[in-house]
Amino acid sequence: MSNKVLIIVENLPVPFDRRVWMEATTLIKAGYEVSVICPKGKGFEEEYEIIDQVHIYRHPMPPDISSVSGYLREYCTALFWEFRLAHRVWRERGFDIVHICNPPDLMFLVAGWFKLLKGVRVIFDHHDINLEMYEAKYGRRDIFYYGLSLVERLTFATADVVISTNESYLSVALTRGCKNPEDVFVVRSGPDLSRFQPVSPNPIYRRGRKYLVGYVGVMGEPEGIDYLLQSVRYIVYEKKRHDIQFMLIGSGPMFEKLQALSKELEVNEFVEFTGRIPDNELLERLSSCDVCANPDKKMPYNDRSTMNKIMEYMAMGKPIVQFDLLEGRRSAEGASVYAKGNDVVDFANNILELLEDVERRQQMGELGRKRMEEKLEWRHQVSKLLEAYKKAWQR
User: Fold this and answer.
1) I need a labelling partner for 235 at 20 to 30 A (CA). Which of 84, 90, 227, 315 fits?
2) Do 254 and 144 share a structural domain?
3) Are 183 and 217 a contacting pair, CB within 8 Å?
4) Which residues form the Glycosyltransferase subfamily 4-like N-terminal domain (predicted)?
5) Collapsing DSSP states into helix, strand and coil, what is residue 48?
């Protein structure tokens, strides 16, 4: 059986991309030789290094700018380096399977090249539904939208096997992707609980306040951090609550704009933007939270996507407040309360109600942790990932 794999990911560096790193290390343990092509990022600037037997090739990227021109520049730069580094990996190590992780969906060009000329198998790891993401960001269906529709179809057509992150993405693969059910595998992104464990809380993150509400994740338009900041303003000025600290962990194209919005709303005294932080600090900060927030906006993209932060909150045994989203509810079930879609006042009131009910918070946290242990954590996904690889080789 083939045992040389090339994984290509564009939007996050490895091993910072937790899902891709779990996939890579799982394959190593199963006897595969794994190479990864990814961008450079803060703390991950080495052009080439070996970590846990995974050979990592990194390339430079332009600044993260949230605009059509910014994305075009980013994707063209990434595509150039992915072609160049894939040929380097082919010369130095070889590969029999190329595993592409969107966004963007342009990676089918690299995968298709090696499939046609070298006979490699292709696995498409479907991380984002780009049509819905584009519409969420720009609110329109224009030439770029229909261009994305075309490359999505070409990506599915190039793939021998598709890995979907949830049932909604499975449906996309079967309908828009026209894939056969036996060629599509659902592999969720639950963290590895052997590494993702609560630690002792640190009161310093509360900054002298009684409660701490946390967020971790990307900071772009669909993530709804602007809604969360409006909820903070309601809590501080309408409800007169000055005993709650809000901690926002992560970065993204809206990071600086959201910091400016925090000042504009006059809530910056109550909100800390940490930027990206190391895993050990992330565990300590999340362990210190009383409630965790997922303000992802109610829209088709978020409704059908499973967010890593939900899984991470549950792994840490934290109660969650989020808007009522299809896949958010499927993941968290009773570990979360669900505010009315995009209603910042209802979101804020749900936070306040949870903070005042210690027993309910504890029950929800325990339910979420148990759900992770019994169904969603990474060890339950390993067999599905390996089955997808077995199928790719058979194809």
Assistant:
1) 315
2) no
3) no
4) 19-195
5) strand
